[in-house]
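pinging the channel bc i need a second pair of eyes. not urgent but kinda urgent?? the chain im working w is below, pasted from the shared doc
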Amino acid sequence: MVCPSRWIDFIYRAGKSDSNFFSQIAKNIRPLVSCMCNDKKMLFFQSNKHWVDSLRSFAQLIWHLVDYAVKSDEKDEVITALIEQEDLVRAIVQWASFWYTNSCPGLLDAVGIDDLTMIHNAGRLSTRKLVKNVVDVRESIGTMHISLPENDIVSFTVGLIRRRKARGWERNDFITIHHLIVDAYCVDKDVIEGIVDLGFTLSAELERSILLINISREMILQKEQPSDTRVAFAIRAGLVEMCLTFMERFGRQSTNQNDIQTSLFSHIEGIFKAVHEVALHKKTWKAIRHKRQDIEEKLNHLETSIIHNIKCNEMLGMITSILDTNGAYCCHCNKSLDRKERFQCGGCNRMTYCSRSCQRSDWLNGHSRSCCKTITTDANCGQFQGRLVPITIPDNERDALKLEELEINNNMIQLKLFLDHAATILEQAKTLHIPLFDCIVIFDLSCVTPEITTRNYSEIYDDESEGRKRYEASRSMKNITCVFSTYNFIEGLTDHLGEPTAMLAMQRLFPCEWLTQKK
């Protein structure tokens, strides 16, 4: 192929002598861009000597073209013409970023520092002047495919993480990664695994660790809410163990942390809270069960190594609480279940048992009257077993399945929570001076450590209200009412007021005698 540097240089000189010529170039730049960008074997950072010469001329051409666009009366028209060329934008992205990513070490020797600096500056100028939506250009940067030395084709974001892991990190690298992940949403499984893997190999420098933990916290969020999918990928990659490693590394000294340590622990606490908020969602729930043994081993080790650090001990309690509220248990006898032991009610598909015997017993014990009664027209519906809030269902099949999985996982831990906190319930009920069947126990699972509040039903239902009449008419003198609430984060789900709801509340009845005689 004939080296295009000569005719590129000709175009550049013609445009330099007649600035109006740049306008025509901008409007008809696709053939030129295609020549320089589209040939997979002759990309800018895999160039032979001829293409390096072309790159120098092409960069000079684009530099002056952009400079003309900024000063021209036809600025919008020229800029629009340039932006529409996706290949050109991708090329500019490479120019603007290769200095930090060191994408082609041999390019410096071939081009020289002066021209290389000019190319780099051209990329920065082009990015700043040509792209009105910064998020879009960052997304273009983060998702574009690049080839690593080991012949692995990955996204630019993954490539940057891997290169920096191998060659050492500078602060600018963290800033770039933060922009790509947080501002441009360039997050996939490989990015998550790369960030977590980097955390295990990062140096012991506290400031860099804070930047990485901050990136990790933002990485598992989506629209400022924890993402079940992202959190699940991160947990399987070792996110919790990574955070515990940082706690071990920087939490041994004393109970008094300086501002930098406090910032680090604050970000770690934010990660644990995000994990907790989706801990009962299907993917995260499975991921926690998958990593339970590894997390417990790390916790056992840390309980002795950072025992004097109050803040770290609080966060260890958060993880312990998450593990305690994660698991599969029989809804009738509280037996811990593995995948092969589960029997689900064929009617509601929400109650899970260890055997057909337990399923029959629970059916006769009251589930026959509540099966499939999961939607009500009024939250104040008296004593029954089923869903209180949301009183509507998602408008698409995918979200409906997500809500059903959340209900199943919520049901499987309700009896365990009830029995584990029997002493607390009895103590609170005693101060009310009323029978247990007049109590309503509220489990707030939205708190990292579940909050248990026992109240008199008369405090919840107003005098002579329909809800109170229904409760009094339907209540049993043998059962205590429990309400379990947690997050759901399903888009488009609304309550009866038409406002988005982020809460799922479910009601269960348990024999009062179970509080004193644990099953």
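so DSSP finds 23 helices and eleven strands in the chain. and Confidence is low (pLDDT under 50) at residues 38-48, 96-107, 495-500. — does that match what u expected or am i reading it wrong
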